[in-house]
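ARCHIVE CARD
Drawer: 12
Card no.: 0347
Subject: one protein chain, sequence and derived structure
Cross-reference: see card 0346
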Amino acid sequence: MHADTLNYHNQLSATEKAVCELLASQIELLLPEAENKVWHAHPVWFFDGNPIVGYSKQKAGIRLMFWSGASFSGPVLPVVGKKFKDASVFYTDAAQVDLTSLQHWLAQATEIQWDYKNLVRRKGILERLS
């Protein structure tokens, strides 16, 4: 895990940090080939420069976001983006994290990807990569 991600965790309350550490450990375990860095001020994991999953502290709690999550099947992510193909879930405590759903979403993230990396070049038009 990138040092900036660890620094991000250290800025959080104990409860928020526990959520983020649980999420990061599962992401690192199940997406070992993904590159991690802090992007737009929060931890994000990428495949070939394309954002896949990340989390951030927000008023509602820790938001776990999948850039292509609106296209996933199976357990539905409850917050679907309005403009793109993203979807999210919020956690206020680590005990709320359903590991089975999280593992399913991470598996889906490797199979279903939209090309956010080239979004600007394509003038806001998303194309499906896989």
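Annotation on reverse: Helices lie at 3-10, 14-30, 99-111. The longest strand covers residues 50-58.
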